[in-house]
Amino acid sequence: MARRIAVGNHKGGSGKTSATRNFAAALAEHGKRVLLIDLDPQANLSRRVGAKFDPSKPTPTTAEVIKSAIEGVAAQAIKPCGWPEPYASRIDVISSRFDLENRISEAGVVGAVLRLEQALAGADDEHDFTLIDCPPSLGHLTQLALAASDWSLAIFEPEFDGVDGALRLKEFVEKDSNRKALGNPDLRMIGYIVNRVRTNMGAHDDQIAALPETFGADQVWTPYIPERAADKDASDSEVPLRLVGTTAAKDQAALWATHAKRLIDLDGAA
Fold it and tell me: Are 39 and 144 in contact (CB under 8 A)?
């Protein structure tokens, strides 16, 4: 069964979706099979991996998967990413679209928070990792991801609001009563990745200096990820970083490869 990881931050604009995409590409380059679940109604992850919803060829999306909640039904929504090989055969996607917002109104239904977990049962057994891209919230959609995941990973910019958003996620996950309510007492945070770092900003340096005390020195992953135009180029072109072709893109991909290796090692040690 895949190791499931909810990638999140309470704040939007942290680069969480780009990080999820880059993680998937790096894991695939390490030879791992990855399932991506787009749990954001904006569906940016779906587009950026070339798997956005096509109304002319409709397939089930996360909205239908969660609504059904039949055990294992998520397998019917899995499709390959739109990237070339070797990514195409190693990265699968459950896409999102705007109607995923309809699931939010179901938060008060008894057992609703377990619907994604039920739908995924057995569906990702042939994958090594399942990465769930959460919306910038701690509401129902993110809770669906946390209830279905083994681990949570925070992505944030080294700015006050970004750090605060990651801290809110940490506090939510580490609260015993929350994990109990999610039916997932073994859920835990595994790390904090500092994204979009600008070396010419003193404010970023100040925030980074305080991170070990805030999150724990062993939990803040290095290397930090600098802000580079290559990330936007890859997102806009709907390709992995290495296919952008520039030196900056390859350097950025190498940083994500380091983080992917750490994730693989953590999985092996668990």
Answer: yes
Rounded Cα distance between 43 and 143, Å, is 18
Q: How far apart are CA 14 and CA 57, in angstroms?
A: 32
Does pTM surpass 0.90? yes
> In this predicted model, what pLDDT tens digit does every residue of 219-269 receive, in sequence order?
999 999 999 999 999 999 999 999 998 999 999 999 999 999 999 999 999
Q: Which of 125, 121, 143 is nearest to 134 (CA)?
A: 143
42-80 in b/e form (b: 16+ CB < 10 A) is: bbbbbbbbbbbbeeeeeebbbbbbbbbbeeebbbbbbee
The answer to whether domain 3-269 has CATH 3.40.50.300 is yes
Reduced to 3 states (helix: H, G, I; strand: E, B; else coil), residue 7 is strand
- Residues paired with residue 34 on neighbouring β-strands, in sequence order: 91, 129
DSSP 197: B
Residue 56 has pLDDT above 90, yes or no: no
**Domain ranges within the chain, ordered by starting residue:** 3-269
Strands 34-38 and 3-8: unpaired
Q: Before 135, cis peptide (omega within 30)?
A: no
